[in-house]
Structure formats: C-alpha cells, structure tokens
Amino acid sequence: MIARSERGCEGMKAVILAGGEGTRLRPLTLTTPKPVVPVVDRPFLRHQLDLLRRTGVTEVVFSVAYRPERIQAVFGDGSRLGMRIHYAVEETPLGTGGAVKNAEPLLDDTTIVFNGDVLTDVDLPRVVAEHIATHAAATLVLTPVANPSAYGLVELDETGRVRRFLEKPKPSEITTDTINAGIYVLQTSTLALMPPAVNHSIERAFFPNLLSRGDLVRAHVHRGYWIDIGTPEKYLQVHRDILGGGFPVTLEGQGVAGGWVHPDATIEPGVKLQGPFYVGAGCRVLAGAEIGPGTVLAARVNVAPRARLSDCVVWEGTEVGEEAWIEGALLGLGVRVGRRVRVTPGAVVGEGTYLSDYSRTA
To answer: Which candidate, 38, 9, 42, 40, places its Cα nearest to that of 25?
Structure first.
C-alpha cells in the first residue's frame, strides 16, 4: 500500500533537478551553472523557490552535479529565503531518475519534483490535491505545445489516467498536443523501482515501468505559463515575458518610465528610457545613452554615453562603450564592449569577452 499525506503542499518536500551542465546555453554556462543564471533580478532557481514557498513548501533538496559549489554559494542553506535547502550531490551524472533516487534518503512519503530549467505558474496546490484525492502513484504535469513532434507525448484516457508515453513521434502518430512539463508529484515509495547509483531516466524508464507494473499514473494539464529556459532564444524570451507581464514577478526596483530601476542603480539625466526594461543594482547609465524595450541590465553594468540597448540581457560587471549598439543579444559576465561596437540580434557573448572598438558580431 502506498503511504500518503493529507496535508496538501504544507510541509511537503520538493526535489529540484539542478545537475545539468546547461550545454545549450553555452558560452553563458561555461562557468555559471544554469540554475544560477540571472533571470531579471534573481538567480533562475529563485523563481522556482518562490513558487514553492508561496504554496507552503519550505524544505527543498537540490540534486546537483555540475559545479555544485557555485549553487551552494548562491543559495546556502536557504535560511535567507525562509526555507531549508539540502544538497544531494551526484558523484557521476545520474540522469533525471537517478537524481531523484539519489535524494531519496532526504524525502518523506510524497515528493514534488521540478526539472531545474522550467518556469511556470502552475497551480501546485491543485496538482497535489488531485494526486492525493485519486490515490495516484505519480502525477505528471503536462503542457500543450504548438509542435509536439519535437517532444515526447503523453496520452491520457478520459479520466486523466496516463495510457502511454510516445517519444519523438512521427507526424502520423501524433494524437495529442500535451507534453511532459517536467513537474511531478510522486509517492516516494515508488522509487524502489529505480536502481541505486546508476544513470536512470524518469521519463523514459521510471514512468513507463510504473505503467507496466499497473500503478496509477495520472496527469494534470496546465494551460497557463510554461517555458524551458534551456536555449538562448527561450532564455531571452523569458525576460521579455517577465518585463511584459506574461509571467508576473514582483521585481526589486521602482517603476520609472515604464520599466524598473533598482534603488542602488544610477541613471543620469539625459538618458532616453523606453519600457519595459530593468536596470539592476549598482548599474550606471550615463547621459545620452538609450535603454530600449526588453533591456535587462542584471547588476553593476556600466553604459557609456550614446550607447543604445534594446531587447537584450546583460550580465553583471559588463562595460558598454560609447555609441555601442546592442540589440537582441545575450552578454555574459564581465564582457567589455568597445566604442561603436555593433552586437547583432542572436549574438551570445561569453564571460570576459572583449569586443574591440568598431567591431561587429557575426
């Protein structure tokens, strides 16, 4: 018999799968793990922690593998956020299933699992309530997508029970538009199906094994906000969504000219501002510069006179030279952009790069 809690989300523990190397976001993630890349005014996983805390979850296990010390340095034990954070460190990569298995000794009877690269406004208490009420062994959150052929499909019956999983289907095999959203509620006892200390996929092995065993695997279809930030295009998009109100976040800053400016930022008179934008702590924007729609300056970014920025994300410590023009691009930590440099749409500039005067990205 599967043990279960009747507490709702209150007091439950969550596992966040934060062990990936973020290869699709390189060069931004060559030295910065994906879980702590900035998303507007905070490290990415803060957004997941904020969601969990709002729903009553205050104890979280980070399953980490790539540069765990960088993640621990940012989040610590969670006390600054009013949470308790534990770390389950993988000595070798264990996959999505093995990572949850690795955290098993720290878990209670019912566990919430988040992939560490999704941002969503899912109604987590409702998902947990459905899971408990139906006595499911596992509940998956699904989300609709326009092109399901690029993903693994999850087929349901009329009651919401999962019938089968179909990986990367051919067009003729597509029977639904819902895909795995990377959010689960599990009875921890089901982890007995997973082998310990080996690489194991929760999507391709664990869930199909649950079905084969006859366990009740259910789904909750979420039709609200959901995005995987794992590519440069999606990472830039999530900033557009937050600034535009598509994913509501209370940003640390004051409303100015349709954007937000951190109290510790300096914007000189004569700067042209067009929202929405965000200027973070310690940033300095000099007279004559232009900050256009979609611009995010994470922290301690210096922008010289007559520089123009729009639809771009600029990480901490970057210097933008006079008359530089940055549009539709991502700039990592400590980049130096020279005078009259043109950073073109789609450019991704890695940490410490120097773009010399009058140069142009390809």
So the answer is: 38
